[in-house]
Amino acid sequence: MFATGIENSAPTIEGGRVRRDQMAELGHYQRWREDFALVRELGIDVLRYGPQLYSTLTGPGRQDWRFADETFAEIRRLGITPIVDLCHFGVPDWIGDFQNPDFPALFADYAEAFARRFPWVQLYTPINEMFITAVFSTKYGWWNEQRHDDRSYVTAIKHIVRANLLAMQAILRARPDAIFVQSESTEHFHPECPAAMPHAERRNAERFLTLDLNYGRRVDSAMYEFLADNGMTRAEYHFFLREAPRLKRHCIMGNDWYVTNEHLIGADRHSRAAGEVFGYDTVTREYHVRYGLPVMHTETNCMEGPAGDEAERWLWKQWSGVMRLRSEGVPVLGFTWYSLTDHMDWDVALREVRGRVNPLGLCDLDRRPRRVGLAYKRLIEAWRPVVAAQASCLRLPVAA
């Protein structure tokens, strides 16, 4: 699956007073037909896309599907395969934030309503980047709750993962052959010095928390104590161990990778970006060994710099990592450049409204393909017959 996405992050900042709706800020609501046509023009067959949860879920059991009806009809007409992204970093104002214990059940009802309205859709990412959603909202204090304490962090984790699992169960009631692509940030922490080794070990265990719970894998003893000390009950923990394994056979592990995904942690426990040390293939291999699932490279991008070829070189570097994993027998089923167009204010993680365009897309905000967009088109044209033949030999699924 060769994929891109329409950036639909929608967290709140400034105590909930400001909603960062990237679909609005990037002009998608006015130019959605043009955006979908660009997907086809670039030879891309799969699109990570979804309606905004905050504006579609208008109350308990109430949805406004008007925009989704139009856009998904066009996606279907064009023959694009959607991976439907149902929650991307934010919830409706009337729910509040991820501390609300009602969120999982409300979200599951919404997911089932979507699946019944659009029964032709098979691929879903119920909640995008569960780990990052919790970290940015309750550890760094940047979005939504804007908290900095471990109890709020654990509460967010257990509500987010429970919502993801309940949504998968609900979608399967409507579409028994649904497939779930868990788009999750792939992280690694490196110790800066010997004194930092225990801190790196802890953070490297913590990075797996959302996927461990989502796939029903027992966490290690230090993480269990951390969860229990901060409000996760035995009954809540055993819910994940009981329910998650029943859903795992419907899952593809999505791994998101950016140059900021490796971290250098010091003796004072503070971390900073390390740049690429191991790289996508090495770190993704850790995740594959841990969970034993098929893999999809679900996000990457690189800012176009003064030389003009930085993003193109990053594209080929990522693709080389994907092909290396496949050559080693890791079933990598897809690759994604995220997103179709440039972003806005992601250089400050949407924390401030600056109106600064980040040149990260396959196309600029005038919908003109960037150099990396044309390179991705060439890559798809050259490699599609090869990976299709490999998939046939290995009996791997190929997108219709």
From TrEMBL:
Residues forming coiled coils: none
SUPFAM superfamilies: (Trans)glycosidases
Gene Ontology biological process terms from the UniProt entry: carbohydrate metabolic process
Molecular function as annotated in GO: hydrolase activity, hydrolyzing O-glycosyl compounds
Superkingdom field: Bacteria
InterPro entries on file: GH, Glyco_hydro_1, Glycosyl_Hydrolase_39
Gene3D superfamilies: Glycosidases (3.20.20.80)
Matching Pfam families: Glyco_hydro_1
Protein name: Family 1 glycosylhydrolase
Lineage start: Bacteria, Pseudomonadati, Pseudomonadota, Alphaproteobacteria, Acetobacterales
